[in-house]
From TrEMBL:
This is Ribose-5-phosphate isomerase. Pathway: Carbohydrate degradation; pentose phosphate pathway; D-ribose 5-phosphate from D-ribulose 5-phosphate (non-oxidative stage): step 1/1. InterPro entries: NagB/RpiA_transferase-like (IPR037171), Ribose5P_isomerase_type_A (IPR004788). It comes from Periconia macrospinosa. One of its GO terms (biological process) is pentose-phosphate shunt, non-oxidative branch. One of its GO terms (cellular component) is cytoplasm. Its EC number is 5.3.1.6. It holds the Pfam family Rib_5-P_isom_A.
């Protein structure tokens, strides 16, 4: 497919997502990172009627997109403690049938997770290449943000978890060394076998806890997150937003933890249509 097909797909998905989920009177909106989000900002700019609207970026690139569009950025940590974002939009590197996502292709996963969890609703926008049944089908690796000093121990631990060749991500100009995130941390890209969804574990396709070489999405995310030196994992899984709030309210055993899954993902397709996946 040509570049123009992919760009047209991103724009179509962004326009539909904004039409469905952006309230023109919104006050605080989260803006993710990457190339697709540019089309979301373009559509929001056309739709917004609130001159006081503020946009919370997920990193340097995201902030530049907001500023270039003539909109007003506000730092995540200047939001009042009890203020939620009306909505947050972001791209994704891959999305599975349960709406679990891989993110971090642009190395912004930590702030993207903060913003996704702070939103009343988190909506993803992507082109058809990202739409898969299982994670690690087309996208090859899990991005992981780590403290620079911890790189050797995290690489070793990832191999123990079953990642064959985890690698430190370099800048495009290899001789400039490792890529630094907005937190001045490094990114490790870790390949694993294609991940299972919960239903696969229930139907016996694999244990999903790594013991038989298979990993279920959230179990792998938790295992990586528990490694010393890891700031954040580029797996967005688990209930988020009002669904999670409603469940937590009735969950006396407190087993419903806070996740980061989007409530909806809009895929721009190669034929110009837009496909929607929503939380079941
Ligand atoms: O997670 C991200 C950055 O960390 C991006 O949202 C993801 O890489 C998708 O980017 P694009 O819209 O350019 O395909």
């Amino acid at each position: 497919m040509s570049d123009t097909t992919v760009e047209a797909a991103k724009r179509a998905a962004a326009q539909q997502a904004v039409k469905d989920h952006f309230d023109p009177n919104a006050t605080n909106v989260g803006i993710g990172s990457g190339t697709t989000i540019v089309y979301v900002v373009e559509a929001i700019k056309q739709a917004s009627t609130n001159p006081a609207i503020r946009f919370v970026p997920t990193g340097y690139q995201s902030r530049q997109v907001i500023v270039k569009a003539g909109l007003t950025p506000i730092a995540f940590d200047s939001l009042a403690e009890d203020t939620l974002l009306d909505v947050a939009f972001d791209g994704a590197d891959e999305v599975d049938i349960d709406l679990n996502c891989i993110k971090g292709g642009g190395a912004c996963l930590f702030q993207e997770k903060l913003v996704a969890q702070r939103a009343r609703k988190f909506v993803c926008v992507a082109d058809y290449r990202k739409k898969q049944d299982r994670l690690l089908t087309n996208w090859p690796t899990i991005p992981i943000e780590v403290a620079p000093i911890s790189v050797p121990v995290v690489l070793r631990a990832l191999k123990t978890l079953g990642s064959t060749e985890p690698k430190l991500r370099n800048t495009l100009l290899e001789k400039s060394g490792p890529l630094k995130t907005d937190q001045d941390f490094f990114i490790i890209d870790a390949p694993f076998k294609t991940l299972l969804v919960k239903e696969d574990v229930e139907s016996g396709k694999g244990k999903g806890d790594g013991s038989d070489g298979t990993w279920e999405v959230t179990q792998l995310s938790d295992a990586i997150k528990s490694l010393t030196g890891v700031l954040e994992v580029g797996i967005f899984s688990g209930l988020n937003g009002p669904d999670a709030e409603a469940l937590r309210a009735t969950d006396s055993r407190k087993t419903v933890t806070s996740g980061q899954k989007p409530i909806a993902v809009y895929f721009g397709m190669a034929d110009g249509s837009v496909e929607l996946r929503t939380a079941q």
